[in-house]
Amino acid sequence: MLREKIGARVSRSMGTRRWRNGRGFSIKEIREAGLTLHKARMLNLPIDKRRGTLHASNVQLLRRHCIVIPLTEIKGIGNKIALELKEVGVTSVQDLIYCDVDDLSIKITSSAGTLKKWQLEARILVENL
């Protein structure tokens, strides 16, 4: 992802609760934040499959980090085109950044050049968050 790297905070299971940096977010935390494992990997989020805990602070951190930006924030994408994109699985600006423009141009009415322009604008928009 274009933003800074984030990490999970975990606590010791024995004795007093001491917080430390963990290896990654648990699968439960990722799902609770409304993400799929596929999207978490695409966003370069650290994932620790061995952890089974769910800490509310990590879920909040994930939600803040992975804000979903609507497609209509990009100049040239209105409600009609946003609906077209949603029908083929592109539901947010982040999805547009990682999609294959050539395949997408076959599925919707917009050209590959226009989609590349929107993809560039989407990257700039996410970088400036």
Q: Could you characterize what this model shows?
A:
It is built from seven helices and two strands; from the N terminus they run ββααααααα. With 129 residues, the chain is mainly alpha-helical. The chain folds into two domains: 57 residues, no CATH class; 57 residues, DNA polymerase, domain 1. The chain has a two-stranded antiparallel ribbon with strand order 1-2. A hairpin with a 7-residue loop joins strand 1 and strand 2. Helix 6 crosses helix 7. The longest helix is centred in the C-terminal third of the chain and has 16 residues. It is elongated, with a radius of gyration of 18 Å. The mean pLDDT is 86.
> What is the subunit arrangement here?
single chain
| Secondary-structure element order, N to C | EEHHHHHHH
Strand content: under 5%
The number of helical segments is 7
Largest sheet: 2 strands, antiparallel
Give the N-terminus to C-terminus distance in angstroms: 12 Å
The chain-level mean pLDDT equals 86
Number of domains: 2
Strand order of the largest sheet: 1-2
Structural class, from secondary structure content? mainly alpha
| Helix content bin | 40-55%
Low-confidence stretches: none
Number of strands: 2
Q: Report Rg.
A: 18 Å
What general outline do the C-alpha atoms trace? elongated
